[in-house]
Amino acid sequence: MSEFLSSMQMNTPRFLSLLEKLIGVTEFLQNSPAQGLNPQEDLASNFVLEALEPYRKENGGSLEIQRVTFVEGRGNVIIKYPAAERSPETSVISFVGSHLDVVPATPATWKRNPFKLSVEGDLLHGRGTTDCLGHVAMLTDLLISLAENKVALKHDIVVIFIANEENGTFSGVGVDQLALEGYMDDLKRGPLFWIDAADGEPCIGTAGAGQWEFKAKGKLFHSGLPHRGINAIEFANDATRYCQRRFFQDFPRHPKENEYNFTTQSTFKATQIFCSAGTLNQLPAECTVQGDIRLTPFYDMKDVYAKIESYVAEINANPAIVEDHEHRGPHSKYVLFEDDVISAKAEIVLKWLIHGENGVACKLDSKGFKALTEATRTVLGDCKPYAIGGSLPLIRDLQDQGFDVQISGYGMSARYHADDECASLTSLQNATRIISNLIAILEKSA
What digits encode the pLDDT tens for the residues 158-201? Predict the structure, then answer.
């Protein structure tokens, strides 16, 4: 059967038919609770289950399928193509991470309808084509091919389509709860391939993520008398810059980041800013800055959070340490005095917006990584592993729990979360070939 796996091809019409159905419901898969968008992933997985229905074990086929739901309408789907001969110790090859939700799309800013699949040459346009419904359709098609051809394998092949990947605010919906309740325990008996990256090459490292908020408190006053007020906007920016400078001193580029081909090092940066209401002739009393931390896997997010808390404590003990008279002028002060007594003092209130998670560095000596690189090289002629500053949920936790996690994906990174998202049909066809070759390689070594 290794010959069949090595030459397996995507059934392109079947793949496109399923993908068209999936993209057709993406308006209801958008995941942004802050915008009132709560996805119903079952709308997508219904089409997956419909495509797999003839091949279910209950219908005389080989596939063992279950939908696992923790929140109504938002199920995860676990599909197993079982080994020909099974025991409690049967090895497993698993493909996890391809998700059923999408990020929001605004039709007015797209050139095409984001909620309808458009095929233009090799490009597949629509929200979710790259992230991540193209992977869902590709893996579903691969499972059907295995089931149709009754391929006898030594491994169990397990595919898990997950809910709630695009929003880290709420837990207990998707892969985190699956792992917590033991649905993934068997996957430790072999490599776990997380299929939610891009560009067709192995991704060997991702960053951890943290999110923070600084509420800068100043003193409201007439802008014509700046020496009597504290400008919260200026204080917020100067405090952020102080913390940013200290962050890069304490968490510089790590030597292993070069080994793993990380383009960017760990970063601490502001991404949003808000100001209390007022008029143009008032120094604002409050300003809120929010931002994120991207941390390479060679540092620990707990250490970063502790350091940021210490920087804020230093500022609050003496806000004058962040004053910048060279650029702000002599009257921009964060500690005010009257008769040599402190009358007002700026303050930063720090809030962590998420718990924070560490990044992952894939094991480069594992069977899974070696099989993935060999399969990629077989299909593409070369293999160029890379690492990114983006984050993928739970992967580090899975690795720490004993899973051999490897990462790959076949969308287009240049179109991730973007207007006019699209994917390459050729790349997804190659994905079928890479994954089937990967299975063949692991079968030979079993």
Answer: 999 999 999 877 889 999 999 999 999 999 999 999 999 999 99
Residue 340 known to be catalytic: no
Measured CA to CA, the distance from residue 417 to residue 413 in angstroms comes to: 9
Phi, psi of 347 (to 5 degrees): -150, 145
Rounded Cα–Cα distance for residues 10 and 261 (Å): 31
Q: Given 165, 176, 323, 357, which residue is catalytic?
A: 165
Strands 404-408 and 191-195, how do they pair? parallel
Region for residue 64 given its phi and psi (left: phi exceeds 0; alpha: psi -120 to 50; beta: otherwise): beta
Classify 183 as helix, strand or coil.
Answer: coil
- CA distances to 11, 103, 128, 358, 423 from 418, in Å: 28, 9, 10, 25, 12
Non-local (6+) Cβ contacts of 80 within 8 A are 63, 64, 65, 156, 157, 158
Closest CA to 242 of 311, 293, 317: 311
Catalytic residue among 27, 41, 42, 101: 101
The whole-model pTM stands at 0.85
pLDDT tens digits, one per residue of 89-109: 899 999 999 999 999 999 999
Residue 382 a catalytic site member? no
